[in-house]
Write a structure and sequence with these properties.
The protein is an alpha+beta fold and 391 residues long. The protein folds into three domains: 191 residues, Jelly Rolls (Sandwich); 86 residues, no CATH class; 82 residues, Jelly Rolls (Sandwich), CATH 2.60.120. It has twelve helices and 20 strands. The strands form three sheets. Strands 1, 12, 13, 14, 15, 16, 17, 18, 19 and 20 form a ten-stranded antiparallel β-sheet that branches. Strand 13 and strand 14 form a beta hairpin.
Length: 391
């Protein structure tokens, strides 16, 4: 078992309290703490006690640390990444590619000589990035496209003349026609459209009309931070989710989403491929985004846990990762799995026991456990366990 030291990423949308308090630092912090990366992604790998990077330690002994089935399926790399995400402000509208799209885009950008750190680069690696977000606090997000008929009603109710071309495109050709139409607008028309939509949305919120009130409230809020951004209008056509602590949502490839507020534990395929569509000052590659977007409309289900080995498991339809919430008491329970494990303590104090001795995880600390390593844990504590989902 290896205790990990993991890096924090500081973005303007982050929280000054959630991650600092988890890590036992001063709160509020001087700068927003957005993401805590726990794993072996080469851009921000966790470090071992001796200073080695986890990704390099795995590369030296992949079969011993990952297990032969994982190496056969994913290669000599940890296929998942765990994060703690804390958002005080909305993240960008974004989607992630399939494995095939990621491999093709990565190869094409390499062939074109686009540097890895170029801000216009869209594909940082050849991997897909499905992800699961489990809410630690009340968590709000835009996830996927709501049913088209509902979107038509939501847009038409605002009675904004500038929206007529979008409504016509949506009615005629669905989302596949309406979204590109919005993204292709000139900046002058974007400014006029978003301003009119924000003004109309504010009127409905002020009037306390309950229908679409959260959607309109967020549209008005987003327009304040991103005037002239078509993502404000696109947000009206997205499902608005409000997760209670302990609920989760799975985001497959192509799903257009934006996290709005709250804190959660994320686990995902180990990739940093992000195609942005708006609500950001960063580079937006419209052609690449349209290529990867899934224009299917409909509700996005909230995932509730099921009882599994060791705790409450959040089932996902991918093999790359699996997430379990483990509520520990003073009695030791087994955490042994066939695949590698990354463990994060979020409450209390965990004592891990294995053949090589004991390891104590205080709140905010994490550990890596090699595949098949017999390990038990006792608390009282709350522990989140990531592993693979191979069957």
């Amino acid at each position: 078992m290896w205790q990990l030291t993991s890096a924090v990423r500081f973005y303007s949308w982050g929280s000054r309290t959630v991650i600092p308090e988890l890590l036992g630092g001063p709160s509020p912090a001087e700068q927003p703490h957005a993401e805590l990366w726990i794993g072996a992604h080469p851009d921000e790998p966790s470090l071992l006690a001796d200073g080695r990077r986890l990704d390099r330690a795995i590369a030296e002994e992949p079969e011993r640390l990952l297990g032969a089935p994982v190496v056969t399926r994913f290669g000599p790399r940890l296929p998942f990444l765990m994060k703690v995400l804390a958002a005080d402000r909305p993240l960008s509208l974004q989607a992630h590619p399939t494995m095939e799209q990621a491999a093709a885009g990565y190869t094409a950008e390499n062939a074109a000589g686009v540097p890895q750190d170029d801000p216009t680069r869209s594909f940082k690696d050849p991997w897909h990035k499905p992800e699961l977000l489990l809410a630690l606090t009340t968590f709000e997000a835009l996830c996927g496209f709501r049913p088209v008929e509902e979107s038509l009603h939501c847009l038409a109710k605002l009675q904004v003349p500038e929206l007529k071309p979008t409504i016509a495109a949506l009615a005629r050709g669905g989302l596949r026609a309406a979204i590109p139409q919005l993204l292709a607008l000139s900046q002058r028309r974007r400014d006029s459209l978003v301003s009119a939509v924000a003004e109309a949305a504010t009127r409905f919120v002020t009037a306390a009309d309950p229908e679409f009130i959260n959607t309109y409230r967020w549209a008005a809020t987003l327009a304040e931070s991103y005037p002239g951004d078509p993502g404000v209008v696109i947000s009206l056509m997205c499902n608005h989710l409000k997760l209670a602590p302990g609920e989760a949502v799975f985001l497959p490839a192509g799903n257009l989403h934006a996290y709005l507020s709250g804190a959660g534990v994320e686990v995902m395929a180990s990739s940093d491929n992000v195609l942005r569509g708006g609500l950001t000052s960063k580079y937006v590659d419209l052609a690449a985004l349209i290529e990867v977007l899934d224009f299917t409309d409909g509700r996005i289900p909230v995932i509730h846990p099921v009882l599994g080995p060791g705790g409450l498991r959040y089932p996902v339809p991918v093999e790359d990762f699996d997430l379990t919430r483990v509520q520990l008491d003073a009695q030791a329970g087994t955490l042994t799995t066939a695949g590698p494990q990354v463990l994060l303590c979020t409450e209390g104090r965990v004592v891990l026991a294995a053949a090589d001795g004991e390891l104590v995880l205080e709140k905010g600390r994490s550990a890596f456990v090699p595949a098949g390593e017999p390990v038990s844990a006792r608390g009282p504590a709350v522990l989140y366990r990531s592993t693979t989902n191979l069957r």
